[in-house]
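Annex B. Sample input.
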Amino acid sequence: AAEYPEHLNVVQLDNGKFHHSSQLKIPDNILLVFQPPYSPELNPIERVWQYIKQELSWGLYDNLDEIKEKVRSFLEEFSTETIASIAGWDYILSALATVA
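Annex B, continued. Sample output.
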């Protein structure tokens, strides 16, 4: 909210209990959009993880720290355009356009 004060910032969330709180104060320029229960196929992050797993699946790793480092460096290389191309499904973008 503070980083982009002139924009409407949309955050898509699943319906986990940890995403609901009566004490949470949401700034006026943040819109929370909750997906229906039990619908991971609607969650864009699932597609990002699928992309990451596909890219890392042929690697051989000696330990957990090594794969954590590989995932971290892989994520650091992501650009906004790359994430949008992976997770920017037409139905999500059109739903967000109608909200904004």
